[in-house]
Amino acid sequence: MKRNFIVIFTLLLCGLAACKQGTNQSKMEETKLKIETTAGDIVVKLYNETPKHRDNFIKLAREGMYDGTLFHRVSKDFMIQAGDPQSKNAPKGKALGAGDVGYTIPAEFVYPKYFHKRGVLSAARQGDNVNPKKESSGCQFYIVTGKVYNDATLANMEEQINQMRLQSVFNALAQKHMKDIYKMRREGDQEGLLRLQDELIEQAEAQMAGKPRFEFTTEQRMAYTTVGGTPHLDGEYTVFGEVLEGMNVVDKIQRVKTDRNDRPEENVVIRKVTVLED
User: Fold this and answer.
1) What SS3 class is residue 179?
2) Are 217 and 231 in contact (CB under 8 A)?
3) Is residue 77 within 8 Å of 147, Cβ to Cβ?
4) DSSP 32
5) Which DSSP letter does residue 214 get?
């Protein structure tokens, strides 16, 4: 391990524990909604295992909150994002994405069952620096387009994730010795710093030794190497639904010309979001 391991940085991947939901809830029929846009219609279903996100999306749809909003951020081979209430009637070129409905939704990670494969519906959110609990925006969402990965790239991602987990343990141990670290830095005691660093590395590796290494599941690997997705977002943003019909419309939207803020130069408007009753 390199001796610059002591550098402290923000952990990029959160814990991967899945939310537990009642068995009756998982057996409920999943709600379907139609998102009518100027580019065509998209039909999505919402997962019952993410009830807070499901109920909120249904509520906003029935209230008409999404009617007239834009797909304000579009990134090819990544995702298309919408739901900013400030995007309604926004003048051409205005930077968007900061609008909200005055509340957030607690994260509902159902991982690894639901992950960022192509076509899933996920909640946008603010960054970890102001949102360490990874709570979702009360209204903004995105649909994943992503790209296809090969096995070697996924293996590299797995290694990076495991290194970040080890780094996180090391960072926590280092925090307990910050007074000693600052003192040795002030005194120019490089030998002492390296000795402490080596001790903390050994402790971190010992703590991780009994824990299973992160690996993509068979389902994830199959999806990411065939239909594609955005695996680096897993465990970071709540996945709460997926597209049933209209991925051709999603692809059409992701190919539109955008400005430097990733806003489409020609507006892609959500005309209406309707709950489909069986």
Assistant:
1) helix
2) no
3) yes
4) E
5) P
Question: Cβ of 222: how many Cβ atoms within 10 Å?
Answer: 12
Structure tokens at 240: 């709460």
CA angle at 108 for the pair 268 and 95, rounded to the nearest 5°? 30
- Contact 14/111 with Cβ under 8 angstroms? no
Would you put residue 73 in left (φ > 0), alpha (ψ -120 to 50) or beta? beta
Successive 10-residue mean pLDDT values, the chain, 278 residues: 39 33 60 98 98 98 98 98 97 94 98 97 96 97 98 96 92 94 95 95 92 93 98 95 98 97 97 91
Tokens of 111: 């991982």
pLDDT given for residue 181 in this prediction: 94
Give the DSSP H or E segment for 137: strand 136-137
In this predicted structure, what is the pLDDT of residue 159? 95
Provide the pLDDT for residue 17. 33
Q: In angstroms, how far is the first alpha carbon of the chain from the final one?
A: 58
Entry pTM: 0.83
Residues facing residue 31 across a β-bridge: 46
DSSP state letters, 72-87? EEEETTTEEEE--GGG
CB atoms within 10 A of CB 37: 22
Q: Are 238 and 111 in contact (CB under 8 A)?
A: no
3-state secondary structure of 255: coil
Please list the residues that pair with 42 across neighbouring strands.
Answer: 35
Is the alpha carbon torsion for 178, 184, 190, 193 positive or negative? negative
